[in-house]
Structures
1.
Amino acid sequence: MTSSDFASFLEAFLQRAEPLSREVNLAYWTATVSGREADFDKLAELQVRLQKLYSDPKDFERIKTWHLSGSGLPDIDKRQIDILYHASLRNQISPDLNERITKLSTRIENQFNVYRANVNGKALTSNDILTILKESNDSVLRKNVWLSGKKVGNVVHDDLLTLVKLRNEAAEVLGYPNYYSMSLDLNEQNEEEVVGLFDELEKLTREPFAEMKATADERMAERYGIATTEIRPWHYEDPFSQEAPRVFDVDLDRYFKDHNVLDLVTRYFEGIGLEVRDILERSDLYEKRGKDQHAFCTDIDRKGDIRILANIKNDETWTGTMLHELGHAVHDKYIDSDLPYLVRQEAHIFTTEAIAMLFGRLSKDPNWIQEMGGIGDEEKVRISGDLGRNLRHSQLMFARWSQVMMHFERELYTNPEQNLNELWWDLVERFQMITPPEETDRPHWAAKTHIVTVPVYYHNYLLGEVLASQIDHFIRKNVLPPGERSSSFANCVGVGNYLTEKIFAPGAKLRWDEMITSATGEPLTPKYFAEQFVH
């Protein structure tokens, strides 16, 4: 088979796949904004149609042949074949099984969207829960709010466990031991290497995290008027304890409450040469009834229709979230538009997470807060020490939380029949060093929406943090002008130029590992994350 054979096949395939992919993405957008069951049903139908397109056995045999014997083809063709092969392989299951998985997944996602915690007869959004956990010193109220938020796990538990088993069934049909192993392989990741890197990070972060947590626990105990031994998950400000509690003497929200979040982030990205106004104009950014309560960025068509869903408040959390989501957005926007469709996407899901995290960190950076007009020199000096400790604490806490998610999902798909409630709290106690609640025989784990919406994804967040530190190091050493290596990159157009040229524009033309080496001069390594946040 020649390059022209593949070109003819690909052209015919994309004439069907490209518009249908756009329809799926638009339907997902509509459903997550509206929360209507009918919109989720339409989404499921379109997803099934797209999956059927990638599941055609005759097409797959041709793709597989090219994949196994394409040594004479141009590199760009071989890269497209690899991407198409992985996308098609995951769909080589029976249409009935594919449809059951898709429809069950969208049904559970809708249950998450419409669920509202209820405390004392009052319905609470996710933003309401976060506000109470940030502000209240009442341990009883905090516990009730935390438990009520977790009850969505009871709602979705049975369906979610069924979904896990169906995903495993699909993986076994394709020759994999389980869905976890399949997902990593089809995303061009080696399971042993991922687990090995996590093990290395666990050892690096264990002692510094324990020391910092002890200090934080003392301050939290003082705040709530309890002993440190009485601290429970609801005493943290994040429902999953994945973010550091604000125990150092800085109330970051006060620097943002009188600013328009959109103005801050727009000015910042424009200052480094990345235009985002068009993205924000297409986005849906504030709370609505039935709307997804979280945030995400989506590229609708790989032609520039990039949007963000958010529920903005003028506080530090949502400032960081918008910096994060706009990191995804500019990554998508500045991919070379002349690239073929299949490689007109990020090199890997964790490489776009790295960019999002590189920017998301800035809302806790005193240099960035000052440069965006939030504080003067004296105030920056006063808070820099505590903010530095807070950022370090945040990174260590997230690194430990990511261990929980990685190990839990791996165990979940290895043996879904085990006591998952017990497994969850064993992992929380081991990695986050948090004392479980009195009653652990509840599906609190099922309240984490990522297990449904982006399964076997969470490890990519920590890999993203590792790569963000590597990119940060390279920028400070090689891109910023001399004397500005401690800045937040504000108003340095060279940063935007570097990111565009070396990371955004190539898209998926290179494998993720080749792209990282090309962009930073070395393979992915945890040493720069350790330099920033461990030592």
2.
Amino acid sequence: MPIDIYAPCPCGSGKKFKFCCSAIADEMDRIIRLMEGNQPRVALQQLDLLAKKHPQNAWVGTTRGMLLLDLNEGTTARDVLMQVLQEHPDNELAIVLYAAAMIRAEGFENAKRAIHRAFQRSAKKLPALVGDLAGSLAATHAASGHIMAAREHLALALRLAPEERRQQLFVQLLELDGADEIPYPLRGSHQLPAITGSDELQKEIRKGQKYAAVGCWSIAADVFAALANADPEHAELWHVTGLCRAWDGDEKNAAESLHRAARHYRDVGVAVECETLAQILDDKTTNDVVEQCAYHAQLHSVSRLLSILDAQPRLQRLKTPTESEFDHPPVAMYLVLNTDHKVTDFSQLTIDNIPRFLGQISVFDANPKTNEAAFLVLTGLRGPDLDDAKAALTATSSDLIEWRADLPQPQITGAFPAESQILDNQWYLSDQIPLVRRRELFDQFWAQVVNDKWPNHLLRVLNGKTPVQAAADPAQHVALLGAIYALDAAAQRREKGLDLKPLFARLNIADLPVLEITDETNLGGLSIMQLHRLPVDKLNDQQLITVVNRSMLIRHDVTLYQVLTAAVARPACAEQFDMARILRTLSDISSAEGRREEAFSWIDRGRNLPVPEGKTAFQHAWTWDMAELATRLENPADPELKPLLERFVSYYGPKVPQIRPHIEQMLQQFGVPSPWDSVDIMIPGSIQGSDRVWNPGSAEPVAAGGSKLWLPGQ
């Protein structure tokens, strides 16, 4: 497409095209057409020739750099763009492209200076490109587990993105804030604290804030750290330094700064939040870890090996993933249990006699696509359990497996803090055990953790003392409170909502004070920990609506229950809420906490809601009967399950015949026979081969024979 001769030149000089690069317009037009016609290599050849004629032309250089990046040739793109910047150091396009090339060629840390230059120099004229750069950095940080850095870079990308891209980025931001596998104190926004002081101090503060506003968080952190070192008891300076370090992905130094902020804050709520963040970041950088490992072995006969493994009483076979999930899935997977005793009387099952798995075996057949021979992988936690699993496997299959001599030590595949090992178990529970019974066992496990194990567990953040010991020392109360909220976050990640009141009573310390608010308080800018301290009963209607929406996203069970019950009790707000969703969520929380009758009462309230616009009374009734069915199935011995299933057969079945396979598939997961085939609803146990691994934190069962290996910290 011809360029308007009076438009700004594409080279970025600021001159009119007519008076700048018009001499190469025809050649560049042909090259651009080649690029648009999906002929990048031919276009690159033409650009190389043109670059020899015009070696200092920025339009040619930036186009070459852009094309090389598209072809994933980061090193060459870096060199080309470096030459452009030597001739045109202020070229905004070259600056941002060079930053992208540096990331590809040398990695994030080495590219940081170029990235910051792009953020400062190119964002105003090229916001979309700089936004894309920030978005790619968000993905990089997320992949590395630097959640706070990922969120801030994503928020920066959102601010710079064109309108058509903002919705996509906003959804990604919501997904990150709602990801329950991330400790909740790390999620959401964290505002920089207000800092008071002299005019000279304020000048430096504004300088740091300007860097932070454009995404140059390491530079901002250096500015704030210099001020904090000059005034080491200034809590806000350490706080702002810690946040900027975290947003830059420097979590180790972020934790150190946040610890120092916590020690000097007079506001106990802010101090504990800084301490909680610091402790969670400490867990991500500590060297005191339990390692997840893998041993590899070559196989001589897959079929013979499977026959042997199937016959071992200590091995439990799992359902294998499909090819749609993996390019080359295993042909068989097993758990190595610590016992060959299978519990058949579930009423006698306790948290002390539940079988545990020591490791997982994955057997892979030969891969004709890659000519890779058949092999086996044994995974587990480094230590006696994994050694026992390996010895048991070797003893039963020594003539069929050959442990790889080039890998005499297990490969490390992951790690988690050793201190958190008391929060996890490696239970194996059969499908035949009703979900309500599993939840009971899970609740007993957590009661033991909270009432006994954790209070008497030595913690490094408490200077090697236990929480019980630290509770007697007022100087350690901020660190102790931070540890309690870090525990709460760890439990929530494992889908267990903790009522912290008994723990505060056990340790004889006070919880955080309720946050003071007014009708003018902007709740949208509060951190998640601040959100949990709100006086819910004192919120005005609009504030409650805001809190409900954020709480539904965050899904912290204890706070969410408190907020939603307040919303249900306030009829004036009913039209502003999705009341059906609220009632179903309350039902789910109640059921997960073992309050089944309360769960059914929320479902009954849902049935009594007006029929939603666009739905029929039949659809409305179906929705809530399905909600009741899902809850009743958690205990297949529930006497109300049979009449409910009869309703599906006699009422819904004739009207919607296609529901039968859907309902039968749902029932099969719980070991319940089809009501279309049997008049009586049987206790589960008649369906064979439905054992699976159950993560005790799971609120819902996995599919029969599910194969996911749950490991601590996941």
3.
Amino acid sequence: MQQAQEWTPKHNPWIICIPLMIAAFMFVLDETIANVALPYMAGSFSVSRQESTWILTSYLIASGIVIPSVDFFCKLMGRKNFFIFSVALFTISSFLCGIAHSLPMMVITRVLQGFGGGALLPLAQAITLEMWPVEKRAQSMALFGLVVVIAPIIGPVLGGWITTNWSWPYIYFINIPIGIGAIYLSKRLLEDPPYARKQENVQMDSMGFYMLIGWLTCMQIVLDKGNDADWFGSVWVCWLTFFAVLFMVIFFVIQIKKKDSLIDITVFKDGNFFFGTIVQVVMQGVLLASLAILPQFLQGLMGYDAYLSGLAMMPRGIGAMTTVVFIGTIGSKINAKLLVIIGLTLLSTSSFMLCHLNLHISTMNIAIPNFIMGIGMAMCMVPIITLSTMTLSKEQMTNASGVQNLLKNLGGAIGTSIVTTLISRKAQVHQNYLVDNLHMLNDNFIERVSAYQGVFSQFVDSISANYMSQTLLYKQMLQQANMGAFKDTFEFCAVSCVVIIPLVFLIKGIKKANNLKES
């Protein structure tokens, strides 16, 4: 135990971070880079847009299965070997994605890519945390936080630019040279500490692994497709939800009772890890939810194309990058809990600013809240990762990173599903209120119809002009109903950030945690 704690890497930790950050960046980037290219892929494979979403779902399911299994595979293969294997599998499957000529082949290759990429983020986080003492982890987590926050933001922009100027296969081909470089640097720079080397007679928790596959697969399908199927109004959603809950319960029972379990859930006995993980899960839900619905607003209601909507969201990345540099330089001199609280407040503020959007705004009205959201996200993400893991031993870090990233993935999926449902349901509510005003007893309605009819009458007969006028007003009503739904959804995100602030006060600060470890 003592030997494990005293281990230090041979190379400079900042140099070792290069392949780690490259690999983590590739994985996080591929979670969002394919979103804007889905219509092009659907056209290439001659399938509907709805069917093409399996390209995204398959990747999330596969990566979710691997993430909590990271600790087992590290014991089986050695952590360095498993990391290199994961990067290689991710790189090879990226090439296969690029040459896929049918939807089934694309889904299979995306599953392989998810299997390869799922381990990259938790391993990069665990190794980065281990290389520095607790008091210096804030600087290393600043770099890690930059990757986690920036990659999903620039994904749609990069994906839109590549798809528009080249073609969609190149969003996967760009991973090949980057992956080869990461493999080479990993072989040269990474090393296994004594507690992360290959172990003999490693037992596989087969039943737990199967239950994990069943749980995550059923749940991800329900979250992705449930809203389109009217949730529990659909029989298959009810059955899949039942099996997801059943498999989840069996999985955790096995993890509690079995000695050689797939994951070690005793890390949740650590208060910092428990409360810090909850905060990160909600933050991840807000981050991915806003990344999902803001482009819908810009493209569906404001008329932006995929590339321009991505550019409108770029200030979020600028704000995050600026804040990460700030935290990396003087963040260690500021109370970490205070940074998290300020960050959550900024996240909530930016979401409330988005609640006041309308259909006549300029791009600046989108850029400013996104810039503030980027500052808030980075200000939260960097210190909360440090706070949540600083009371854990280095031997626990790989397992804890896997568990934490699994829950963050689930938080992102649940958050995205919630806001998607809110938009569709709230749009119906607002439409129900607004449609009551579209009748011939409403003086404003009659006045507006007459004005439009006067314009259309210059080109068509009076009957057609009246029909076109009322149709135009109905479309405007639908736009306002959808606008109201987006406002309500951003308000939900804002409230979610405020609700978790009290949990931050339950987390021990860095100095107090260090004193406890020394005693």
